[in-house]
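SAMPLE LOG
Freezer: B-3
Tube label: C17
Construct: single chain, 157 aa
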Amino acid sequence: MDRNKLFSYHQWATLESLRHVGTFGEELYQREGQSSFSSIEKTMEHVIGVEKLWLLRMIGTKSPAFEYFDVSTTEKAIEAFMLLHAEMELYMSSLSEEQWQEPLKFKNLRGDDFENTREEMLFTVINHGAYHRGQVTSFLRQFGKEGIALDYLYFKQ
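STRUCTURE (predicted):
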């Protein structure tokens, strides 16, 4: 499948999820629950920070540091996500097919060595986002709220 379509889907689904959460107010966004992270806010802090890590790895940074973004409200999270994705789109549009397939060496935050292509890194970004969007839906259910349909088929409509 076309990587641009997948990235656009990922953007759409994450923004729709954040907008939906925002309809319930900031208290719910910051409320603590049971998941990998203590709240939707902390989950989004992780997602956006990790996506920045992957961008830096794609650029060729071998051991990038985790960057924290201001995601203290849903609006700030949307803004941080959109700004980062504009940067990612600009960079990705500059890549040739050969560059997408070029293996790059990097270390994860634990110091483990990896070698992956940019295409594999992008797939990881998209998969990682889907995993954590599922956790956001789980938070909403814990708080007595409904999630929304974010499957690719809904994006295509």
